[in-house]
Design brief:
CATH class of the largest domain: Alpha Beta
Number of strands: 16
Structural class: alpha/beta
CATH superfamily of the largest domain: Type I PLP-dependent aspartate aminotransferase-like (Major domain)
Strand content: 15-25%
Radius of gyration: 21 Å
Strand order of the largest sheet: 1-11-10-7-6-2-3
Order of helices and strands: HHEHEHEEEHEHEEEEEHEEHHEEHHEH
Number of helices: 12
Distance between the termini: 23 Å
CATH architecture of the largest domain: 3-Layer(aba) Sandwich
Largest sheet: 7 strands, mixed
Shape: globular
Bound molecules: pyridoxal-5'-phosphate
Number of domains: 2
Length: 369
Amino acid sequence: MIPQIDLTRQHARLKAELLEAVERVLVSSRFILGPEGEALEAEVAALCGVRHGVGVASGTDALHLALRALGVGPGDEVITPAFSFVASASAVLHAGARPVIVDIDLRTFTLDPAQVERAVTPRTKAVLPVHLYGHPADMEALGALARRHRVALVEDAAQAIGASYAGRPVGSFGDLACLSFYPTKNLGACGDAGMVVTDREELAERVRRLRDHGSRAKYQHAELGWSSRLDEIQAALLRVKLRHLPAWTRARRGLAARYSALLADLPLTLPRERPPAVHVYHHYTVLSPKRDALQKALADLGVGTTLHYPLPIPGQPLFRGLGDSPPPECPAAWRASREALSLPCFPELTDAEVEAVAKAMHQALNRIG
Ligand SMILES: Cc1ncc(COP(=O)(O)O)c(C=O)c1O
């Protein structure tokens, strides 16, 4: 069986380095808000081209606390894509605001700037694009739009660490940007973790306060906050993995290029890199009108695949009754939900496995006709 993702290979290779990092923290016995976390914050901020990083407990908390730091709350609207993991929109609900769901551009699976423009109202407080599958959203158009309407820009870069747009790293475009270090991400912890990055010192300070009970001085609580810290063991593990991220990104891009060459003759829509975006292929996701039959045939041939995501945001019961009548249509998001299929994609996947997946794709599509 070729799995869609296999973390055991990465951890087998890095075992000695990772255990050494855990041991270092155990010996220090400093587990929360210490030197490993601070070093990781500086390293990740530098990678994102900004001055500040604030480690938090998850990517979901990063989004929620970034919105809180901007003062987003009841009565505000935040524009967010119809096709993403649920957290991009649920973070807006957590902040007490209303997610305004806008369709994606199917060429990149990211927020369509022309439709965002039409969705802006006097209540819009922020636009929250998602760099889905590792492909940066159209940051030129969305950045210009945010400046023109004087609304904040918050990047959901959970799937896109290391990607860039017009030569600038993702994470450097928004007022704030949010990262997830969920284990399967391009940079994954051995548990839950996330980070907010920003170039704006006052926003970094606010997130620092919010992640720690609204406190900057011990037992002094200036505002209502949360307990959402990135712990020292995860930080130490992530620092080991961060050193390998450039090589992993090259491997992901290499296997995506190989897939695209080997699958070019099939009746599929293949993922494309739209310049000036540089894609980091968190997922290699194709569109097929016969997606469900294709997934089953591939499973029979020993190839694991995943559906990212089988139901778009407007179809989730959680987001019904947001006051939209009728609910937003979002045909591109619905089509993506019906047709998207993610193939095996992780840096340790071998050339022979990529070729075996491509061969199975040909056989499977032949079989289902
Ligand atoms: C696009 C996107 N946003 C947000 C999140 C939330 O991150 P976490 O799982 O770390 O809370 C994820 C992933 O899980 C994601 O893929």
